[in-house]
């Protein structure tokens, strides 16, 4: 018995509003039925739109889990892609994850104060490294192309920096859940914010790598001198010190905002 | 304003002077930038592409001043830039790479952006490679991918630093065809060592030497510089700037001809050679 696709069903098929099983059934029928096939438009525009639909499923890059999380949190998809996509950023995050977890586990397993102190001293450097790696010609192979694009480089750097700092905090929380004996390790947070902000402020004049290296060297020197001087953790992580970090972070952020246009031009006076 | 003005532009890297008062104007059409290695071509293109601020002088690009932040962004919105050497995210596919750069060019709408990516992939003949990882592309394909990203958004100003380097002859012909179609009402500035490219597609030639513009004119005018300075001889002429043996066993010479020399029609390469001097050519050859 010969059957034909009904007009309403065929109309829905043509505009793509039909489920996959029914579409497959219709397409099988169309290969054998010239009468029904003649009712399906074959003009260029229809073919073009169909092909575009197919290509749009095959060619675009897949959305990774982290990008999905960002989009789920309300970040626009194109912004999430720009923030997350560069290898330098992935490298920074990987370094942050590894360092945070290694220190947390080491501290938890040994329970020795010195290890905990080392963790506290090193933790602020993780977001600094992330900020230093997130933007710049050394680790971003596409930096020259990014420079010539109209996207606001300050926004790009800030977005990536915020992403690095936030992810570092998440890593610390995860580490504390794994190793409860590291309670109190949150004292590194304000130093980290201050050091990251100072790195950004220096990056208005220097490359981010050089800025990050300089800030890290200064922090390590402070920690070493503190230890050699016999000072306890309160000297660098106590209430007074935390207040100093807040002030430093505020000043650094003010400098960054005032000098934001410098991120849009390399090697120039701006 | 659809013009580019370069006025007394200067730039140095440490003690090395890259640009020493370069000066010229550009109008819609294709302009070829010639010059020996170290002449300042790439530095000049990077200044025009707003990735490097010159130490001195004035630039006006499409009516905007690249030293002013807001105007710089306006230039970038109208700019396509293909650097001489650019890094790739090698784990990306060609589509992914272009999609990322399209986002940097403020193409927010996903559907329109993907359509534009497909268009430029087609324009450079990489449609079949849209899902290929960049690390698996040949050198010529990577050059075409760089060219594709410069074409995103149909920019009003296209700056290409050695776009035909690494392309095979067929790809170069396709490049010429595509660029000549593209440049109908746009400004294209390309640097090259291929004088054939210049004579084939450029309306204007600018020769840069030692950071200064030593010639600006049509390809015909550059050829005319060598008129009466190219000849054939049976023996290697000692006074010529440069000489080579032809397939017929004679010597083609460029320079000041001896009396009674058998003169032949010059090429654009001859004009360029006479302009920059044999020493510069020798430097380039060694480099």
Q: What would your notes on this structure say?
A:
The complex is a heterodimer of chains A (270) and B (287). Helix content of chain A is 71%, strand content 0%. In chain A, helix 7 runs parallel beside helix 11 (153-178) and helix 9 (125-134) runs antiparallel to helix 13. Chain A has 270 residues and is an all-alpha fold. By secondary structure, chain B is an alpha/beta fold. Chain B has 3 domains: 1-78 and 156-214, 3-Layer(aba) Sandwich (Rossmann fold); 86-154, no CATH class; 223-286, no CATH class. Chain B has 10 helices and 13 strands. A 6-stranded mixed sheet of chain B has the order 5-6-7-3-8-9, with helices on both faces. Chain B has a 4-stranded antiparallel sheet with strand order 11-12-10-13. Chain B is globular, with a radius of gyration of 21 Å. The mean pLDDT of chain B is 90. Classes of the chains: A mainly alpha (270), B alpha/beta (287). The interface between A and B is large, with 36 and 42 residues.
Indicate the topology.
The complex is a heterodimer of chains A (270) and B (287).
Chain A (H helix, E strand, L loop, with lengths): L6 H8 L5 H13 L1 H4 L6 H15 L6 H8 L4 H8 L2 H24 L2 H10 L2 H10 L8 H5 L5 H26 L10 H14 L5 H21 L4 H5 L1 H20 L12
Helix pairs in contact in A: 5-6, 7-8, 7-9, 7-11, 9-11, 9-12, 9-13, 12-13, 12-15
Chain B lengths: L3 E10 L2 E11 L2 E6 L6 H8 L7 E6 L7 H9 L1 E4 L11 H11 L5 H14 L15 H13 L5 E5 L7 H14 L4 E5 L3 H7 L2 E6 L2 E6 L1 H7 L4 E4 L8 E4 L5 E4 L7 E2 L4 H9 L1 H9 L1
Parallel strand pairs in B: 3-7, 3-8, 5-6, 6-7
Antiparallel strand pairs in B: 1-2, 1-4, 8-9, 10-12, 10-13, 11-12
Helix pairs in contact in B: 3-4, 4-5, 8-9
